[in-house]
Each structure stands twice: as structure tokens, then as C-alpha cells.
UniProtKB/TrEMBL annotation:
Taxonomic source organism: Nycticryphes semicollaris
InterPro entries registered for this protein in UniProt: CysQ/Inositol_MonoPase, Inositol_monoP_metal-BS, Inositol_monophosphatase-like, Inositol_monophosphatase_CS, INPP1_dom_1
Gene: Inpp1
Superkingdom: Eukaryota
Protein name: inositol-1,4-bisphosphate 1-phosphatase
Organism ancestry: Eukaryota, Metazoa, Chordata, Craniata, Vertebrata
Pfam families: Inositol_P (PF00459)
Length: 399
């Protein structure tokens, strides 16, 4: 398991590098957006986007982890479909029109790609040249960019993290499965705002809320056991003006609780972070508890990270608009710090019938019965993320 934890962190670092690379090529970036439709669409947003960065990062993580740990193959799940439209005149997210690439018959024969009409199935090929050729089928005529991305996909990552290297754990990888959110808060990633001022340390939006989330859970119980959160856009280097990232990890397995972070202190007046779309009823109910410490931010993963870092004491969401891939990695880190994540609706229902014990936490191996597409893995009934049980109790009692 120690090797798997290091592999998850290494995969997140490669993913963060690709995310920065895609954003850095601004003229190219306008070609990378395709709007989600149908069952893959998150209905909470009028427009829900995926980017080539999302798809490529997800497939890189699947490829690298599956190659190093064959026991995980078939058990590495992600948010995105790996199909990408590249048809001439096809409208992409943000109203951009793509430039039609040449026909793909030769590439199909060479790579054995699954191509339907003008849809390319993005995957990692055996050699950088083949991956570059596949990417060029989406990015034509940006050959240099396709080769740059392919080089990033195939590069080795050296962590140099002595603390991580010293972690010794034992759990068979064949007992685990993975949830990936390749770029959480994709809309903020696409908009790319760099000048959003934080309020009490919490950024209401912007590029900093775009995260890479990789979580491992027990296949049998659904309990999250390993989590990695990578912040690709943590800060800019003052000299090069290039973005630098950082990562956080946590382990919660059996009696083992390990993390790259320390639990934040318990404060007398809790700070709660909400989505900007949260309803007036929840806002009004929490205001007496928090006073002026009610904050709003973009990105489910980012709001969970705010709790992990102690910038907020709880994240409350009343709608079923988050998914297994949003929550698995942060949940594992929260558990490592002594906290957790519970389904809000179920917890409130239990309290109404007099059950004031610790609510059951979210699990990640149970699709929603009768649902289709992304909704199969929705966290129905909202959630509460917390580190200190006292804050969970205060929120539930208030609501």
C-alpha cells in the first residue's frame, strides 16, 4: 500500500503538470473544450464542460496505476468519458468553432483507435510518438502542442518526498478501487481567473480552486482509505511567473491514521463554507451559528480542501450535486485527520427519529439504484464534511 500511495501522489503530480501545460497554451486552449451532454452532464449547471486536459489526465492516471498495479485494472474509475469530438464545424464549449482535422483512416489503422465518425477515443499509447499522433487527431494542426502533451504523458515523475517515502503500510491493492476527478472545478479551470481575492483565506472562485483528486476505497465496504489532493495552481513563481503546485495526502485504514497535514484546531465559532448556489433556507439556518463566518466558494473538492486545511470547519451541501469522484479523495484525508463526510439528508432523518449517534459516512461502491449516467454515482441528499465531530453536531443540530 505504501507503494500505491506513492504512485497516487506521482500520478497527481503528472496530472498537475498536464493541467498547467494545457492552460499555458492559451490559443490552443480554446480548441480543447467540448461540452458535456446527455447522461454525462451535471444538471446543476446550465453548461458543464469537459476538456481534453480532463480526459487526458484521467487516462494517464488509469494507464500509470494500472501498469504498476495490474490488480487495479478494471477498478479505476473516473468522471469523464474518454471520447472527444473533433468533427469539422463542431461547436465546442465557450462558443468556439473547431478546425476540422484531416480524415482519420490512416491513424485508425496505425493505432487501432476506436473512432466513430469524428469521435476520437483518447488513451495512452505504447510510445510517445503514437500518443502524439492520437492527440494530433484532436488538435490538428497544432503538432508541436500534441508532441508536448505526449511528452508530458510519458515522462517519469520523481517525487523526492522523504516523508512520503518513509510511509510503511500493508493492504493488498486487490482489495481497493480508485475514483479520479481529473480536474475538479472544470468551469473555473476553463475561465482561468487568477486575481480572485480570498476572504479569510477562502477563494470564492478562480484557478486556484481547480484540483486533481485521486481516492482509493475498499471494494467490499466502500470506505475511503487513501486520498491525494493536488493543487496545480497553488502559487506563481515570482521570477518565472509560472504556476507551482502542492499536494496533500491521507491514509485511513483500520487503526492507521496518517496524513501530510495535522488536524486544524477546534474554534469556538465554526466557519462554514457553502456553494454559491446553496438555497436561502440553509443559508438562513446556518447564519446564527456562524455569524459573519459563512463563506462561499466554487468547486466541491476545493470546499472540502478548505475544511481539511482548517480554513473552514464544515462544508454543507443540501443538494445531490456532488459525485463519488468529487468526494472520495477528500473524504479519505478527512478520516485521516479524525473527521469524515456524511449524507446530510440521512443524518437529519435519523435525528428526527431520536438517533443522535454518529451518522453513517458516505461510501463509494454503491451506485444509485435506478439512476443512469453520472447520476448513478451522485451523493444523493447532500453532505457535510468536517474534521471535528463537534462541528458536525453543531451543524446538524442547527439544520
Amino acid at each position: 500500500m505504501a507503494g500505491l500511495l506513492q504512485a497516487l501522489v506521482g500520478a497527481s503530480e503528472k496530472a498537475a503538470h498536464i493541467a498547467r501545460l494545457c492552460r499555458r497554451e492559451e490559443p490552443l486552449f480554446q480548441l480543447l473544450v467540448a461540452e458535456k451532454t446527455g447522461a454525462d452532464r451535471n444538471r446543476r449547471f446550465l453548461q458543464d464542460f469537459k476538456t481534453l486536459a480532463d480526459v487526458l489526465i484521467q487516462e494517464v492516471i488509469k494507464h500509470d496505476l494500472g501498469k504498476e498495479f495490474p490488480e487495479l485494472q478494471g477498478h479505476i474509475h473516473g468522471e469523464e468519458s474518454n471520447e472527444f469530438k473533433n468533427g469539422q464545424g463542431e461547436s465546442r464549449g465557450g462558443g468556439q468553432q473547431s478546425r476540422g482535422p484531416p480524415r482519420l483512416q490512416g491513424l485508425r489503422l496505425r493505432l487501432g483507435m476506436a473512432v466513430t465518425g469524428e469521435t476520437v477515443t483518447v488513451r495512452v499509447c505504447a510510445a510517445p510518438g503514437d500518443t502524439a499522433a492520437l492527440l494530433l487527431s484532436v488538435l490538428e494542426p497544432e503538432r508541436a502542442a500534441a508532441e508536448l502533451l505526449a511528452a508530458a504523458v510519458h515522462r517519469d515523475v520523481a517525487l523526492g518526498d522523504t516523508e512520503l517515502a518513509g510511509v510503511a503500510l500493508s493492504i493488498p491493492p486487490q482489495d481497493l478501487a480508485i475514483w479520479i476527478d481529473p480536474i475538479d472545478s472544470t468551469n473555473e479551470y476553463i475561465r482561468g481567473r487568477e486575481d480572485v481575492a480570498p476572504v479569510d483565506g477562502i477563494a470564492p472562485g478562480g484557478l486556484c480552486s481547480a484540483l486533481v483528486l485521486i481516492g482509493a476505497y475498499d471494494r467490499h465496504t466502500g470506505c475511503p482509505v487513501l486520498g491525494v489532493i493536488n493543487e496545480p495552481f497553488f502559487r506563481r513563481d515570482p521570477l518565472t511567473r509560472r504556476w507551482q503546485g502542492r499536494y496533500h495526502w491521507g491514509v485511513a485504514y483500520g487503526d492507521t491514521r496518517l496524513s501530510s497535514l495535522s488536524p486544524p484546531p477546534l474554534r469556538p465559532t465554526p466557519c462554514v463554507v457553502l456553494s454559491r448556489a446553496e438555497g436561502a433556507a440553509v443559508r438562513g439556518a446556518l447564519s446564527p451559528l456562524c455569524g459573519d463566518r459563512l463563506h462561499f466558494a466554487a468547486g466541491a473538492g476545493y470546499k472540502m480542501l478548505c475544511v481539511i486545511l482548517g480554513l473552514a470547519d464544515a462544508y454543507v451541501l443540501s443538494e445531490g450535486s456532488t459525485f463519488a469522484w468529487d468526494a472520495c479523495a477528500p473524504h479519505a484525508i478527512l478520516r485521516a485527520l479524525g473527521g469524515g463526510m456524511v449524507a446530510l439528508e440521512e443524518a437529519l432523518r435519523a435525528r428526527r427519529v431520536g438517533n443522535t449517534g454518529t451518522p453513517q459516512e458516505l461510501v463509494y461502491n454503491r451506485p444509485v439504484e435506478g439512476a443512469e449516467g453520472a447520476e448513478r454515482w451522485a451523493n444523493r441528499g447532500g453532505l457535510v464534511a468536517y474534521v471535528h465531530p463537534q462541528n458536525l453536531e453543531a451543524v446538524l443540530a442547527t439544520l
